[in-house]
Design the sequence.
């Protein structure tokens, strides 16, 4: 495991040497941003909407005391969404969708000798292929998290008000009540770290695939499982560091 | 000319190449032949530095590639064109983008010049009106041709072909062989072809290096291969019925 971690660190180092021109990376980063970010918008919006809706209904079901005001429901939805559900749960989905795609894509390129073809041309294949993915991931994932927060709160609002759980005024009051702006920093730090972990781990697993189609599948699976474990570990460490 | 001295490579306990030396001449098609698993592709990958040999030195026209700094290595790599076994075309790019790729990365040519060069190379390998096609829409032979076009687009001094005939029908194989031979003469490249196809050996093998279990057992031209006197080479060559017939005559 230590050896694997060493290889991962060396791999990250290799991304920064023998780079291509800025113009080359610019086009690649834009392409990756579309692939990673824009193509994930619908999935993230859908999942977040239902996360918010479910959180609203379940919080309401657990608030049995009549002494607790209704706006607390949306306050709880806000806190859960911002601090955990949007950055972390969406990161797990992101690892499954984007991470497996990155690992599979690079793995296929490796076994079909496309990466060798780049190396023969004198191109640093890891930097050329992986760096744009990591930069695009760090750029797009925080935006997806912002979208997730918005969709989750909207989901909570829509279901909460239409089901008669809270009134629109109570919900909006709760969302705004006692808001700590530092949580925005926490969310953005989490989003940046998770997006880096998913992209770098998935690319690492894909880049060093050897064998055939079976191994590409194994790399994709490993990319997702390792990313998920890393996200959860980093989640705990960040919470301890920023809020503990 | 490419010269290799004492190339050895092991993977774990398994010795793949053991002290291989040889010279590959300019303007000739130099073949590395041998049965499957003898280390032909590993040797080719060592020569282009895709695999680092454990020992040995590689010279590209007296330039020591093994001990070259990154600038010299980059300079030498710009002079290399390589055709991979499956073509190794980039899936996400169409034919035109694939062939243009080395020019995009390695040169500052204006777009119209690059397009002219791409079209010239595609025409040279016998492909017309395929610029917008994706690799998945091409046949095996067409992929190899596009691979050759990409390999020659940057006017390479050194051309490497890894099993150019694998997966092709005999007729297309001959066409690809002829194309490699023509390009070698036309551009005066140092061409190294890894193959185990006896048609290629007899058709384009101007200089042949025979590998057996990681050792070099024989070196010579295709005309001499029948009378090499090396048992392992005879076993390899005359496993083909047509070759056996030639020997009997």
Sequence:
């Amino acid at each position: 495991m230590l050896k694997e971690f060493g290889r991962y660190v060396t791999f990250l180092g290799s991304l920064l040497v023998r780079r291509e021109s800025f113009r080359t990376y610019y086009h690649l980063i834009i392409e990756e941003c579309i692939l990673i970010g824009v193509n994930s918008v619908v999935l993230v919006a859908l999942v977040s909407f239902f996360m918010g809706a479910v959180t609203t209904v379940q919080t309401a079901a657990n608030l049995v005391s009549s002494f607790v005001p209704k706006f607390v429901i949306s306050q709880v939805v806000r806190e859960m969404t911002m601090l955990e559900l949007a950055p972390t749960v969406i990161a797990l989905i992101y690892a499954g969708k984007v991470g497996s795609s990155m690992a599979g894509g690079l793995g296929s390129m490796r076994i079909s000798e496309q990466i060798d073809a780049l190396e023969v041309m004198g191109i640093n294949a890891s930097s050329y292929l992986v760096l744009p993915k990591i930069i695009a991931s760090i750029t797009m994932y925080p935006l997806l998290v912002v979208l997730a927060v918005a969709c989750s709160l909207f989901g909570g609002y829509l279901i909460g008000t239409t089901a008669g759980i809270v009134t629109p005024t109570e919900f909006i009051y709760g969302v705004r009540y006692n808001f700590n702006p530092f949580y925005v920093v926490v969310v953005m730090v989490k989003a940046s770290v998770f997006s880096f972990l998913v992209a770098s781990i998935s690319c690492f697993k894909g880049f060093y695939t050897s064998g055939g189609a079976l191994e590409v599948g194994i790399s994709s699976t490993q990319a997702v499982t390792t990313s998920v474990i890393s996200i959860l570990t980093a989640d705990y460490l960040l919470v301890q560091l920023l809020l503990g | 000319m490419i010269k290799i001295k004492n190339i050895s490579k092991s993977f774990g306990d398994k010795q793949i190449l053991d002290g291989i030396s040889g010279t590959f001449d300019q303007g000739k098609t130099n073949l590395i032949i041998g049965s499957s698993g003898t280390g032909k592709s590993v040797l080719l990958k060592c020569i282009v530095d895709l695999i680092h040999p454990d020992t040995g030195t590689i010279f590209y026209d007296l330039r020591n590639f093994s001990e070259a700094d990154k600038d010299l290595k980059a300079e030498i790599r710009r002079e290399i064109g390589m055709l991979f076994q499956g073509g190794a075309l980039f899936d996400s790019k169409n034919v035109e983008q694939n062939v243009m790729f080395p020019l995009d990365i390695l040169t500052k040519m204006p777009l119209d010049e690059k397009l002219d060069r791409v079209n010239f190379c595609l025409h040279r390998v016998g492909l017309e009106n395929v610029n917008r096609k994706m690799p998945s829409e091409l046949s095996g032979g067409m992929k190899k041709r596009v691979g050759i076009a990409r390999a020659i687009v940057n006017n390479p001094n050194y051309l490497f072909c890894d099993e150019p005939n694998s997966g092709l029908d005999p007729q297309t194989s001959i066409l690809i062989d002829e194309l490699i031979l023509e390009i070698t003469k036309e551009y005066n490249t140092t061409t190294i072809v890894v193959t185990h196809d006896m048609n290629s050996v007899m058709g384009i093998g101007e200089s042949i290096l025979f590998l057996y279990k990681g050792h070099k057992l024989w070196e010579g031209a295709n005309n001499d291969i029948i009378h090499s006197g090396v048992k392992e080479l005879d076993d390899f060559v005359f496993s083909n019925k047509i070759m056996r017939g030639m020997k009997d005559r």
